[in-house]
Amino acid sequence: MTEPLPINPLLALAVARDTAREAGRLIQSYARGELQVQTKGGDARDLVTIADTTADEMIQYNLSKAFPDFRIFSEETYTPGDLIQTDIPTWLVDPLDGTSNFTYGLPHYAVSIALWWQGEPWVGVVYDVRRDIMFYGTRGGGAWANDRRLVVSDRPLERAIICADWAREPVRRRAVAHAFADLVQVCHTARSFGSAALNFCYVAAGWLDAYFNLGLYPWDVGAGGLLVREAGGMLTDETGAPWTTAHRGAVATNGHIHEAILHTLARHLTDDHTP
């Protein structure tokens, strides 16, 4: 049984919300100038800018100052092999989710901050920088967008808007593309936006009916995944197992079409795609 978070979740939520908004202002200050774009590990699709790194530094400073005994697991300081310790409350941080969108001028990116403890999410904040929408929630406290409580849709597959984003690994990328192609034949329509954190929030809000991606990390799902569940939706890996921070694939839906999405993905998955 999961023990209660050792602090009041609402206190952690307040700090995370203030920090996410501050990070958003910092990111926007870079949007108006020329950006030097670099790649991570030689992967031309994995971009990083000064907006990512400076926002990350600010977020880590704020969180460490408020909660010096907690750990921080951030995209910008992660190295392969790093693990999330379940016995210490840990912040999962993506300072700029949607870096490719940001560098190309597409106004769709976010700050994502989550607090996990004993393998479970307790606090989730996703700040839609360009639209000034603060998505947030706590374990058992519901999911919200600004002052509006979020509830997933009840649409069936034939009326659904399906969303997917593309894993960087070629084999996983092809699997997503093939499943996406199958689903567009039977759903109402389909989208791909390029920010996993926001896509999870859009499922929670009922704006999307399903979202899947086979190339995610804990910081991509940590906050938005909590909001999906708090809004009444379902979150699993691509095989239907409950999503954990060890999984690369994630499927979030309104619940009504979850099995249909999993069934379609299964037709294109092999052992090469599974975690």
UniProtKB/TrEMBL annotation:
This is Inositol-1-monophosphatase. It comes from the Bacteria. Mg(2+) 2 binds at residue 220. Belongs to the inositol monophosphatase superfamily. The keyword RNA-binding does not apply. Mg(2+) 1 binds at residues 75, 94, 96-97. It comes from Ardenticatena maritima. Keywords: Hydrolase, Magnesium, Metal-binding. The keyword Metal-binding applies. InterPro entries: IMPase, Inositol_monoP_metal-BS, Inositol_monophosphatase-like.
